[in-house]
Amino acid sequence: MNILIKNVLLNGSATDIFIENGTIREISPQCSRGADKVIDGSGKAALTSLINGHTHAAMTLFRGFADDMPLKSWLEDKIWVLEKKLTPDDVYWGARLACLEMIKNGITVFNDMYWHWEATARAVRDMNIRGFISAVFIDMFDNAEGREQIARNRDLYARSREYAPHVTFTFGPHAIYTVSRESLEWMRDFSAENDILIHMHLSETENESVFSRKTYGTSPTAFLDSLGILSGRFIGCHGCMLDENDAAILGSRGARLVHVPVSNLKLAAEKIFPHRLVQEAGIPYCFGTDGCASNNHLDILETMKFASLLAKFSSSDPTMLPARQTFEMGTRTAADIFRLGRWSIEEGSSPDIMLIDLDRPEFVPNFELYSDMVYATNGSAVDTVICRGEVVMEGRIVPGEEEIMARAGEIARDLVKR
Known about the structure:
The chain is an alpha/beta fold and 418 residues long. It contains 14 helices and 16 strands.
């Protein structure tokens, strides 16, 4: 499909953008090319779409179900109990609801770890966005379970080709306290052989650090490094407990991180993500919402604001994570982490694009767009979204959204009663 966006604000100037099969072919004050779809960009700004670096998509079904609880009882008494009841159909509709919410918030790419891998993959394909999808890998140090999980992941990797180009298979070992050394070593080797990303919770809580020191005599990061897991394919999520030595290790191995501030605040993680240590070590990082059970909202713009403010507050430095840098971390840096190519609106590039409605009170007087995007607005300002050269939302309307919300709501209420 060819798309022509007319008279949209790009880098401060009214511009036409011509997109051919997902690639930007022309940016000019007035484009005369014919297009299958013409979008009036008047009163809107064109920006690259957002990337959600860490989710559990189908947990939209648990939104508001078990709030304001300690992490251990929240997991063991509420979340894990419901998750045992989940069917592939439940996950499919929960994931479609997540995709819908992310589209509404300008997110076209997300990195997911959840049960019933294929159900989430189908949801991503049907919503016509992009997902880096991993199955939860948990063996609880049981050899038989580990072998079963390995066989399952081999099979999913082979089947993932059926969902290309919308879905990319990744590994999702849950954490060092739920996955055995042997399984991690297998993932290390299979990942290297097939160039597969590894998406893992890392140093999220003090309990994880205590477990690692008692079991392995070192920090979670140092333990993973001893196994050879850390590389440019490794994406560690949360990282609240990382120390200077951990940061040095991660930086030297080229590993990447995802900062998940809203979830960590809500679940009262003991420490704040160490922005300064991570930046000094040269570790690229982006942002994630986590699942809706621990965040309640899939809005990366909201997450960016929390991240920037926490970085300033925790470092007593108001210059930390300035608005433009924060926005670029949620877009260009994230695109680099997930190997999406040049994530910028320029001729020859192929980013997903969102159009921001500037006719809103929070954009007045609009001295600086990136400041307004990070500090003033939220995902509700997103008017139109283009993913892989297809319009997936226009005028804040996503085809089929009423059915998705109705079905997901029915499933969530039924799940609690089962």
